[in-house]
Each structure stands twice: as C-alpha cells, then as structure tokens.
Amino acid sequence: MQFDGAAAIVTGAGQGIGAALARGLAARGARVLVSDLSHELAVGVANEIGGVPHDGDLCDPTTIEAMIDLANARFGKVDMLFSNAGFALGEPDGPTSRTDAHWQKSWDLHVIAHLRASRLLLPQMVARGSGVLVNVASAAGVLSQIGDAAYSATKHAAVSLAQSLAIEHANDGVQVSVVCPLYVATPLLGYNDAKAERPDGVITPEAVAEATLLGVDEGRFLIFPHPEAQTYFAQRALDTNRWIAGMQRLRDRVSGQTDESDPASIHRYI
Prior knowledge:
Blueprint: E1 7-10, H1 16-27, E2 31-36, H2 39-49, E3 52-55, H3 61-75, E4 80-83, H4 100-128, E5 131-136, H5 149-169, E6 174-179, E7 183-184, E8 202-203, H6 205-217, E9 222-223, H7 227-238, H8 240-257, H9 263-267
Parallel strand pairs: 1-2, 1-4, 2-3, 4-5, 5-6, 6-9, 7-8
Helix pairs in contact: 1-2, 1-6, 3-4, 4-5, 7-8
C-alpha cells in the first residue's frame, strides 16, 4: 500500500485513535482531511500535521457529503477512508435500559456513516481501480461488550458491513479492513492524559494506529491491535455456549467491582 502522496479522510480525528491515525498517515506522506465533531479539535490536529480540518455530526448525511466534497476539492480525489468516529455511554440497567434515540445514534454513527461515505467514495475508487475503506470498529464487534449492548450490536454490524464490502469490491481493486482493538487509553475510557498510568492490556492510541496502518499495508481484512482478541474470537466460534457462560461469570464479577454509573469504569473490564 502506497501511503506517500495518498489522500485520506480520518473521522473522529480530533483525539484518541483518530488523531493518532491522522498523525501516522501524515508521517508517511499522506494528505489528510481531519474530521471531528469538535471544530476546535479538528483544527488543532489539522494544523499540527498540515492537514485539512472538517467538523460536523456524521449522523447527518449532509455533513458526510460536505466532508467528501471538501476532500475532493482540496486533494482532487480520496484514496483512503478511515471511519473512526464513535461513542459509548454504557447502559444504566441492562440492554433494554437505553432509549431508542440512543440506539439509533449508535447505529447512525457506527454503521450508517461508514455506509454513506463509502457510497459516495466507491464510484471514484472503482473507476480508478484502487481505494481503501477502513472501519475502526472494536473487539466488541467480534466478541461482546458487557454494559453497553448498543455499542456491541452496532460494532458487530460495522464488522458485517465491512465484510460485505470486502466480498463485493475486491475485484474492483478496493481494499477493505476492519480494526478490532480491545482496551485503548482514549477519552472514551476516561483517559484524558496520554501519559497517564495504564493497567496491563490497555494500549495507546498510537499503538492502535501503527497496527492499523501495518495491517492496511499488508492487505489484512481483520486487524487485531491486541493479538489476544483474535484468540478470544476463535474460542467464541469454537464453543459459543461456553463463551457466553464465561461472559456471564465475568459480568457478575464486573457488577460487583465497578460503579456502573461510570462507563469508563466498566469498560476497563471488557
């Protein structure tokens, strides 16, 4: 994969994994559009790497259209899309306790935003015979997320969508990857200080970005920044009943050891 000179869009790029991806791409010579819900964060990262800032809510299809239009206008084309924007709030009392609006927002941001952007970008990628579509999902998309069913379900859907895109467009020269990290020290888990002490198994956004770009360079579909996640995925497939029983026991331990009103607290156990 040729990064040098490529034009890339990274969403959710104002902080965390997205910012690390934007920096990693720029360091490899790519031109990067930095998209984030926050104007201030998008401008900050874009100014740092010499990129193009964009801000807006990707649940709104007009925001996605404006993002693609801006990238095409500034770069002349888009070679790579890294759909990284996401959120997680946890749930107050089990999978049914969040509102329909929360579930819909999870669906719109984690799945439909990538679909809409891909729909707009695929014609030019297919015409060129090259392109890269990457969805930064989560290990929750191949395993399960205790304490946030909406996040888990929509990340599963994100993995499924990526799989369908990979099957359909491989002969068009479009490479598709989906990234499934476990624990990452980002604001999503309450890590606002990049230098904060981390428990074992919690890796940095930079480590996820490097694993992602390496996986894209090697043409891999499933990218596991935590290798153990692939082992868990295989174990789940081999004996799903045993897997669920183990997760039930883990859930019981988690509920007794964390404050479930604090999403960052429970996510560290997942």
